[in-house]
Structures are given as structure tokens and as C-alpha cells.
């Protein structure tokens, strides 16, 4: 084995030189002490014909004076752990085997990322890589500036750990760890005088030497030091508080200019200290956490709303698992190399499942587990929800609506059982970063190369105990701009609500066999067209609740949920079906099981709930200077008073209304493919349609269930083939339903390339569109810019001439060369020359 010299001959003699793959970590008081040993190492390595590579951190003074024979690589710590670490690995990968490396002090990493944890993580993934290729490398850290846990991780990973001192102008090296070699005097301190070395073996000299140094019993991490400074600044002058507050915002939120500026405006130093005190680990708290905190701060502090909401806004007591914990979890479970392979173009999908499995089955460190236990002790047995809060999530331009998982922890059982359930929930959220929808979303939006760190938001579930169930009275989604209008009188700027009884899970997803209440806030009692015809049928029939006895999320019928004491007036939310009740009474049938109809009439008519929601949407969107999408809950007391909890807030991605479009004059109703008043979304458009992908309702309903899923997958194949074309997808019922009896069960990624999506009602086959604007599915439509139309049969102002399509040639097998494609059900028509027009003012959409 060829030895590598330290450049200090006497030290080489004692230690036997460096072995290929040796990583040497120098603990120093002064960077000049590190510079002393680096100079000797670099000069000797150049003389010996080594390829010397210097990993230099931008904005840091160079520790190598003469760079003429050194390969300089300047990297920016501000890019974050993943980008920075990948850059280092890519540099190492491209250099020759005859290479040695010098790194700037790792203490700059600690200060740049405000984290001992991430310093250790960087070393734990870089050191083994250098060892594997047989390259010697020098690192340094500042002595007594790291926690014992961090030093232990570095000591465990490195091959050599050395203390270096300067006492009265003399340099001393004291080896602490030297792997795979030993001499009787190796671990004594050694005085260095050029190439000569004197070993300090005398007890008197050693005692005199070490008495110079500060041996702190308690070592705080860099993050804790900054947090303590922030707490101390609470009693200091305003300018100091502002400076320290900005530091905490940068550490917890990041430096994105828009969000950073909003945080400076609405958060005090005390607010930031409170947030920091509830963080587990270190790092950013992520987009979902910031959005929830920001919306709550705006409503409670803005002059126009703070008095109104003083007793209405429900306080939150959330915790945040920082992004550093996510990276540490990856590193500590040996998944870093796999993550690096997955981040490449060829490995993006190839290694995703393997990485997902690894994330789902990893272990947390004892230190983090202890903090998890404290969190669970704080909440007791109150249900909590573990939610994704990634860096890119809920941000301007990228909502990631429904792409990552959220997991309820009902929080019942022994402490160890509750801890396991909580950790499993976090693992599930981490693993969801590798699910197919998330991967495709990032890829389609050019985010696959971005640093996507996952923080966790832990929230107390809003609600109360009602018998064996736990749930909020109402929940849902609120949008400040109502882009889905079904009536000419609707004021788009008044906003809209998706409203459900119980947990809001039924509001954010396209649920099966059920309907949520759509509320236009300019006239809350106005019903959508289909709901008017049959209010009971088109209402919510099932409720999502947390079952405490079963320790799980459960869906129950409405009657089961309202039969227990709701601790408020159930008439706020609905009433028994009067017609059925009268009919039963007339014929002497027991009326106790008559369906309770959730119409929310009294809530919308007789309380100030919609007024409060309108105020929230108005003030938050005005301060964001952008439309917003808010998730909320509300709970009522016996007098009908309510408190609102803002669960989430994100910018609502919209295209705007667009310029007014001149509609074509139709000679008669049969001259167009379709026409409708209302029930469309996407603003004013005039759009050419080159292809229509049409699902034949008559043939679709005859298929067995498994074949209906196959139809969805085949639509996905066509969607890929038509990328870049102007195509319209038309089919029965609800696109994206998980129940194939209600519509084609496509995933969003299987229709994401369409320009228009059209849902068609076939009442005789019980296939109906759902006005689900505000759900995750529709958020994807808005964000992607897909125009949406719902065509309701038997509605006077709706025309759909299906026979115009059926006369055309089905070219699906010309587009997809797959003999197994079902061309009886799936039709693709060449429709060049066809155009779709819409006008918001007149509320007309037509295709001709």
C-alpha cells in the first residue's frame, strides 16, 4: 500500500504516514493552525506528483496561498445541503485516482446551514466516498463548537481525528483517533518544529500544556446558540430584535424574497422564537407550515380584521420537524447513495420504488426519538395529524396539492404504541416524496433537479369527542377567487367554499358516492344546477371521523355521526328529510332512521360564518397580493357561536380571466358540438381543438370493474402520445374518481397533457359530473391550465350533439399501435378546425 505523506517527516515517522482513503479531521482553535498543516501537506503532495484538489467555500478566505498547481473548486454553501454535497461528489468522481483533497473548515458549513446535524451529515456521506476511492483528505472543525453527539458522529466516520494547538508560538499535534495503526507514543501530544518532532511524554509538561485549554462540559449546537441569542434579544432594543428576527426567518423559512418579506412584516421576534421553540431537530419548517402561520398572523394582526377575529380564530399549537431531520434520516439509514442515483435522469423513476421502500422502513436516532416522545406527551391522547411541509410545497407557482401524504394519528394506546404510530406516520410522509404522482408533478414542472427537502407539520386535530368519534363540526376548502361559476350573477371575487360535515378529507378529494356543498360567498344559499333538482341526492351522505375505539380513520353514515350529542345545535348543519318523515308517519313506519340531510341552510342563512370566511379570504389574498386557497375547520358551541381554525393556506394558481372573446353566432342548436350556460372553468378562451379523446358511455358502463381501470391506463398512454397537441378529453361522470362506477378512474398524470377536460352527465346511467372546484384534483387542473367543462343532460341551456362525433373515424389505433387498446370504448377523433369559446360575462361556453 503506497503511503501518503503529511509533509511533516517526523510526524510521518511516528504515525507511519497516511494510507489511501484516510480522512483527517483537525480540531483547531484558530484557522491559521489548520493552514499550517495544510501548507505542509499540499507542498509535499505536489512534489510527489499528486493531483491536489481544493474544495473552497465561496466568500471564505483561502487557506492555500499558492493556487498555481492546485485544482480549485469553488462551491456555494447557500445552495443547501443536497446541491452542495452532490457537487462535491461530482468533483471527486471526475478526478484521478492519484488525488488528494483539502476542504475549507467544516465550521463554515455549520454557520452557513445553522446546523451541527447537517455538518455531520455532510461528513458522513463524503468521508466514506473518499475512503472508497482511496483518496486522502484534510478537513477541520473548530474545537468546542459542536455538540458531543456531532463530534461522536465525526469521530466514528473519520479515520484520523487530531487536535492541533498553538501555545506561545509553538505548534502541537495531539492524535485522538488513528485507525489501523499504533505505536506506544502515538497518542501523546507532539511538538512540531518544521520537519522535526518532539513527543511530550513528561506528565509535568503535558499537564502544563493542556492547562491552557478550555474544556467545556456543556457544548451547545450552533442552532441552540442562535436560539438562545434570540431569546435574550427579546429584552433588547428594537434594532437588535429586528436583526435577530431576520436571522431566525432565514434559518426557519429560507431566503425566498416574497415569503421572507411577508414574514418580516407579520412576525415579531417573539413569534419567531415561539416557532423555533416548537421545532424538532433543525432546518426549515417548510411551505405548509409557513402558509398556515402566515394566514393566521395576517388575520389576527391586520387592522381590518384583528378586532373581528379576536374571539373567533382558534389558536394553534403545532410542532415542526425540521428538514435536517429528513436528510439525517436518509444518511443514517444508508440511503444517500441511492438518493443520489435517483436524482439522475436515468435513475429518476428507476430507483424511486427502492428509495421509497427504504424511507418507509428506516429508523430514527435516539436523540430524535426522545424529542418525538416529548411531543406526544405534550398532546396527550388528543388526535394529531402528521402533514407534509416540503420546501417547494404551497409556494407561489407550485401547490403540490395532494401530492404528498398526510397521516392521522388517533393517538390511542400505550406510549410506545403511540410513538410507533407517530414514527410510522412520518415515514409514510417521507416515502410519499417518491410516489408516482409526486415524481411526475416535479418532472412536468421542471422541479426534478430542485432541492426538495421534506419538513413535517404536526397539528392538533381540530374538533371534539362525540361518543366514540372525534371530528370538527365542519371543514373544507376556501378560495378567494371563484373560478368555477354556474350562474351569471355570481361574483367571482367574493370567493367560494367547499363545505363538509366532519373531517375535511372529504372536501379535498373527489369522494365516491357523495357530494360536498359548494358555496358561492356572494350568495351562500344559491345552489348549483344539479343540486336544485334533488337536494337530498346531491348532498353529503357520509362523514369522515376518527374512531377512538378502533384507533383509525373511519367513514360513517351521517345519521351515525349526528345521533350522539354534538354539543351544539344539529339544525345548523341540516335536518331530517321532511317529505320522507311525513310519508313514514302516514303509513305508520318508524321514523327514527330517516336520513339526516346535510343542507347547511341554517348555518349559511342565520350565522356569520360565511361573513367571517369572506373576510378571511379578502384580507389574506390582499396581503399575499395573490388569490389564495385555504383549508379550514370550524366548531360551534351550544349557542351557535363558532371558532375557525386556519389549517392551511397557499397561493391559488390561476391563469386569470383573459381577454373577452367574441362568441360565434350559432345558426341553430345543432350546428355546434356542444354549448352550455355556466359550469365551466378557465376564464375567457378561444382554443383550437385538434383531437378529441372520447369515452363512450354506453360501452363503458357495460365493462367489468377491472376493465374500467384498464380504460384509465389506456387513456394515460394516449395522454402521453398527444403531449404538445391541443386535445380535449370527454367522458361520462367524474374524471379521476376512485370509483369506476362514477367515472373513469384516471390519475391526474394520465390526463395532464390535455388542453380541455369535459365531464358529461348521463342521468339514466347515474353518471354525473361533480362541481369539485377546490379539491386537489381541480387544483391540478387550474395549475396546469386545463380548461374544464361540465355538460348536464336534461338542462334546457345545454346542447351536446354526440352524433357529430360518432360520425367521425375513430383513429385511436393509428395513434396508439397497441392491439389491446379498447377501441369500442375509447375513441380518438381528428377535429382540426374545431374551436372552443367561452365568455365569463355571458357565462357561455360553446364548441363548434
TrEMBL record:
Protein's UniProt keywords contain Nucleotidyltransferase: no
Key words of the record: ATP-binding, Kinase, Magnesium, Metal-binding, Nucleotide-binding, Pyruvate, Transferase
Top-level taxon in the UniProt lineage: Bacteria
SUPFAM superfamilies hit by this protein: Glutathione synthetase ATP-binding domain-like
Signal peptide positions on this chain: none
Known catalytic reactions: pyruvate + ATP + H2O = phosphoenolpyruvate + AMP + phosphate + 2 H(+)
Family in the record: Belongs to the PEP-utilizing enzyme family.
Stated role: Catalyzes the phosphorylation of pyruvate to phosphoenolpyruvate.
Name of the featured protein: Phosphoenolpyruvate synthase
Species this chain originates from: Intestinibacter bartlettii
Amino acid at each position: 500500500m503506497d503511503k501518503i505523506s503529511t509533509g511533516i517527516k517526523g510526524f510521518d515517522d511516528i504515525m507511519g504516514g497516511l494510507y489511501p482513503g484516510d480522512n483527517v479531521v483537525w480540531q483547531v482553535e484558530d484557522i491559521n493552525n489548520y493552514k499550517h498543516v495544510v501548507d505542509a501537506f499540499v507542498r509535499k503532495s505536489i512534489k510527489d506528483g499528486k493531483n491536489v484538489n481544493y474544495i473552497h467555500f465561496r466568500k471564505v478566505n483561502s487557506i492555500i496561498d499558492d493556487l498555481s498547481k492546485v485544482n480549485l473548486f469553488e462551491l456555494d454553501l447557500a445552495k443547501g445541503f443536497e446541491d452542495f454535497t452532490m457537487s462535491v461528489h461530482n468533483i471527486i468522481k471526475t478526478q484521478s485516482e492519484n488525488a488528494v483533497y483539502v476542504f475549507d473548515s467544516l465550521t463554515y458549513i455549520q454557520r452557513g446551514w445553522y446546523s451541527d446535524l447537517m455538518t455531520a451529515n455532510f461528513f458522513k456521506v463524503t468521508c466514506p466516498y473518499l475512503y472508497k476511492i482511496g483518496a486522502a483528505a484534510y478537513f477541520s472543525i473548530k474545537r468546542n463548537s459542536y455538540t458531543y453527539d456531532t463530534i461522536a458522529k465525526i469521530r466514528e466516520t473519520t479515520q484520523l481525528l487530531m487536535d492541533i494547538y498553538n501555545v506561545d508560538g509553538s505548534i502541537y499535534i495531539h492524535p485522538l483517533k488513528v485507525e489501523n495503526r499504533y505505536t506506544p507514543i502515538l497518542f501523546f501530544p507532539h511538538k512540531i518544529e518544521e520537519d522535526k518532532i518532539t513527543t511530550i511524554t513528561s506528565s509535568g509538561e503535558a499537564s502544563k500544556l493542556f492547562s491552557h485549554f478550555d474544556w467545556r462540559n456543556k457544548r451547545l449546537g450552533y442552532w441552540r446558540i442562535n436560539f438562545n441569542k434570540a431569546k435574550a434579544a427579546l429584552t433588547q432594543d428594537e434594532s437588535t430584535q429586528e436583526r435577530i428576527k431576520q436571522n431566525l426567518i432565514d434559518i426557519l423559512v429560507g431566503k425566498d424574497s416574497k415569503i421572507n418579506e411577508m414574514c418580516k412584516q407579520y412576525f415579531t421576534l417573539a413569534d419567531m422564537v415561539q416557532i423555533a421553540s416548537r421545532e424538532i431537530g433543525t432546518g426549515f419548517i417548510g411551505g405548509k407550515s409557513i402558509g398556515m402561520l402566515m394566514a393566521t398572523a395576517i388575520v389576527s394582526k391586520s387592522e381590518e380584521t384583528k378586532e373581528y377575529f379576536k374571539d373567533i380564530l382558534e389558536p394553534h399549537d403545532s410542532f415542526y420537524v425540521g428538514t435536517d431531520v429528513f436528510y439525517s434520516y436518509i444518511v443514517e439509514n444508508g440511503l444517500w447513495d441511492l438518493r443520489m442515483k435517483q436524482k439522475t435522469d436515468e435513475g429518476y423513476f428507476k430507483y424511486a420504488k427502492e428509495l421509497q421502500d427504504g424511507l418507509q422502513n428506516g429508523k430514527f436516532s435516539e436523540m430524535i426519538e426522545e424529542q418525538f416522545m416529548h411531543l406526544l406527551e405534550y398532546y396527550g391522547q388528543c388526535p394529531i395529524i402528521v402533514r407534509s411541509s416540503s420546501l417547494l410545497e404551497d409556494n407561489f407557482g407550485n401547490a403540490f396539492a395532494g401530492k404528498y401524504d398526510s397521516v392521522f394519528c388517533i393517538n390511542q394506546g400505550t406510549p410506545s404504541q403511540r410513538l410507533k404510530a407517530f414514527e410510522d406516520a412520518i415515514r409514510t410522509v417521507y416515502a410519499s416524496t417518491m410516489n408516482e404522482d409526486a415524481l411526475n408533478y416535479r418532472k412536468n414542472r421542471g422541479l426534478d433537479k430542485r432541492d426538495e427537502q421534506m419538513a413535517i407539520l404536526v397539528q392538533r386535530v381540530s374538533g371534539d369527542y362525540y361518543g366514540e368519534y372525534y371530528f370538527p363540526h365542519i371543514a373544507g376548502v376556501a378560495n378567494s377567487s371563484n373560478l368555477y361559476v354556474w350562474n351569471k350573477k355570481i361574483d367571482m371575487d367574493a370567493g367560494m367554499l367547499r363545505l363538509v360535515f366532519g373531517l375535511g378529507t372529504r372536501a379535498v378529494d373527489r369522494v365516491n358516492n357523495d357530494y360536498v356543498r359548494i358555496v358561492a360567498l356572494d350568495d351562500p344559499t344559491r345552489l348549483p344546477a344539479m343540486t336544485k333538482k334533488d337536494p337530498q341526492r346531491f348532498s353529503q351522505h357520509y362523514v369522515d371521523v376518527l374512531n377512538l375505539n378502533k384507533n383509525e380513520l373511519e367513514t360513517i353514515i351521517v345519521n351515525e355521526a349526528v345521533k350522539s350529542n354534538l354539543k351544539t345545535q344539529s339544525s345548523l348543519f341540516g335536518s331530517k328529510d321532511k317529505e320522507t318523515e311525513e310519508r313514514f308517519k302516514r303509513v305508520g313506519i318508524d321514523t327514527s332512521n330517516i336520513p339526516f340531510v346535510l343542507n347547511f341552510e341554517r348555518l349559511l342563512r342565520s350565522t356569520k360564518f360565511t361573513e367571517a370566511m369572506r373576510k378571511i379570504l379578502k384580507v389574506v389574498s390582499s396581503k399575499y397580493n395573490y388569490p389564495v386557497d385555504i383549508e379550514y375547520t370550524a366548531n360551534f358551541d351550544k349557542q351557535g357561536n363558532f371558532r375557525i381554525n386556519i389549517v392551511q393556506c397557499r397561493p391559488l394558481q390561476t391563469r386569470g380571466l383573459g381577454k373577452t372573446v367574441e362568441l360565434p353566432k350559432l345558426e341553430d342548436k345543432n350546428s355546434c358540438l356542444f354549448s352550455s350556460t355556466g359550469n365551466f372553468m378557465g376564464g375567457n378562451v378561444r382554443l383550437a381543438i385538434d383531437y378529441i379523446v372520447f369515452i363512450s358511455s354506453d360501452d363503458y358502463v357495460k365493462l367489468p370493474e377491472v376493465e374500467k381501470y384498464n380504460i384509465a391506463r389506456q387513456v394515460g398512454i394516449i395522454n402521453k402520445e398527444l403531449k404538445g397537441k391541443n386535445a380535449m378529453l370527454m367522458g361520462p361522470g367524474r374524471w379521476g374518481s376512485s370509483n369506476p362506477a362514477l367515472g373513469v378512474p384516471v390519475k391526474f398524470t394520465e390526463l395532464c397533457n390535455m388542453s380541455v377536460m369535459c365531464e358529461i352527465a348521463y342521468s339514466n346511467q347515474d353518471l354525473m359530473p361533480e362541481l369539485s372546484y377546490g379539491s386537489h384534483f381541480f387544483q391540478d387542473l387550474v395549475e396546469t391550465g386545463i380548461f374544464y367543462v361540465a355538460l348536464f343532460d336534461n338542462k334546457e341551456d345545454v346542447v351536446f350533439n354526440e352524433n357529430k362525433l360518432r360520425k367521425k373515424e375513430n383513429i385511436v389505433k393509428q395513434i396508439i399501435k397497441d392491439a389491446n387498446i379498447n377501441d369500442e370504448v375509447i375513441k380518438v377523433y381528428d377535429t382540426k378546425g374545431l374551436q372552443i369559446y367561452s365568455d365569463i360575462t355571458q357565462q357561455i361556453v360553446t364548441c363548434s
